[in-house]
């Protein structure tokens, strides 16, 4: 859903879906940490369902990997500050729901949503960028945001038990460089994009740099399961 500005640096656009499986935050709209306050608690995200498919399953939940297009507007004047279709060669965005990769309001707005569903959501400042705003994303202080969202896919999240076991071929509860390398190759083959071989090596190195906290050459179940929503 909304991707304007990453909280940290965004990964290269050609890193593909396999990258989201293991670590980097996507180039999505993620807000700086904000203090909890009474105002935030009193405000809510307003959701209008524009289209609901006849078969509405599966429905999204925290930790799921979603694929969506979205447009972002300022409620004050209706001006558009983001359009996912003009980014990354127009590919829909992948992100993990409910773990802070997007602003809190979007994590709330896209819960219980199914593939093919379209929503218009209104997010108050306290669940977006608050009093600070985000100048780089052309979002002023105290801005109410409107997003029009079209959801394409709801998949098991990258930190799920299923995903870990899928990569852990020898079932030793830790992921080796060979296992992750093979998984990336399979993911790249699945999405069908042409990539230079160096992209695979760069992603693999980055995965271990950010996840192998004890430097033993493996990513343990504990190191992998950073979202703490499943038990391995």
Question: How helix-rich are the residues, as a percent range?
Answer: 25-40%
Taking Cα atoms only, what radius of gyration do you get, to the nearest Å? Answer: 18 Å
Distance between the termini: 29 Å
Sum up the overall morphology in one term.
Answer: globular
Mean pLDDT: 78
**Class by helix and strand content?**
alpha+beta
Q: Using DSSP, what is the number of strands? A: 8
The biggest beta sheet is recorded as: 6 strands, antiparallel
Low-pLDDT segments: 1-28, 32-41, 226-232
User: Approximately how much beta-strand content do the residues carry?
Assistant: 15-25%
Treating each run of at least 4 consecutive H or I residues as one helix, how many helices?
7
Secondary-structure element series: HHEEEEHEEHEHHEH
Domain EF-hand: 155-190, 199-232
Catalytic activity: [protein]-peptidylproline (omega=180) = [protein]-peptidylproline (omega=0)
Keywords: Calcium, Endoplasmic reticulum, Glycoprotein, Isomerase, Metal-binding, Repeat, Rotamase, Signal
Pfam family, one: EF-hand_7
